[in-house]
Design a protein that fits this description.
- The protein is mainly α.
- The chain folds into two domains: about 60 residues, no CATH class; about 80 residues.
- About 70% of the residues lie in helices and about 0% in strands.
- About 10% of the residues have low confidence.
Length: about 170
């Protein structure tokens, strides 16, 4: 018995059924349904629309405690020109880089020590430090570190390094 197979051109013609194209409006409506995939264009539109609404609300706000965009801009220019904001941003950035470098070195050392049985309890205890609140630790760190710079670096290192280690 021989069976007849359809020609290859027939198979490909049937496999390539006409694809359904969703309109942009349909994508926007689908954005309100859970777990839907929307097009990049619809996502861009949603983001731009939300930023526009935020800026409009900000610019037309009557709240006294929320300064207008031009007030914020004038304060920024004043801080930049007269109060040394640029220099302070550079100092803050370098402080964060220094703290990340120390946290990386310490965490890599502790991560290596997790495979040495003698040091496993220490590394495990350090990884539990992520559950400690920083409010209570600031006094402890203030007593240990004298200068303000070392205090800031040590708090940042502790706050970051405990998250670099994951318990085994």
């Amino acid at each position: 018995m021989t069976t007849m197979r359809p020609a290859a051109s027939t198979i490909t013609a049937n496999a390539s059924a006409p694809s359904v194209k969703f309109s942009f409006l349909h994508d926007l409506i689908a954005a309100f349904s859970p777990n839907r995939v929307i097009s990049k264009a619809a996502l861009r539109f949603i983001i731009i629309f939300q930023i526009g609404v935020l800026l409009l609300v900000w610019a037309t706000s009557t709240y006294v405690f929320l300064p207008k965009p031009m007030d914020v801009w004038r304060a920024f220019v004043d801080l930049w020109n007269n109060e040394g904001l640029g220099q302070e941003l550079i100092v803050s950035f370098l402080l964060n880089v220094q703290a990340m470098a120390w946290a990386t070195v310490i965490s890599l050392g502790l991560a290596y020590l997790t495979v040495v049985p003698v040091f496993q309890p220490i590394a495990h205890a350090v990884s539990k430090g992520r559950f400690l609140g920083m409010v209570g630790l600031t006094f402890f760190f203030t007593v240990i570190f004298a200068s303000g710079h070392r205090l800031k670096v040590s708090l940042l290192v502790f706050g970051v390094a405990v998250f670099f280690l994951s318990p085994a």
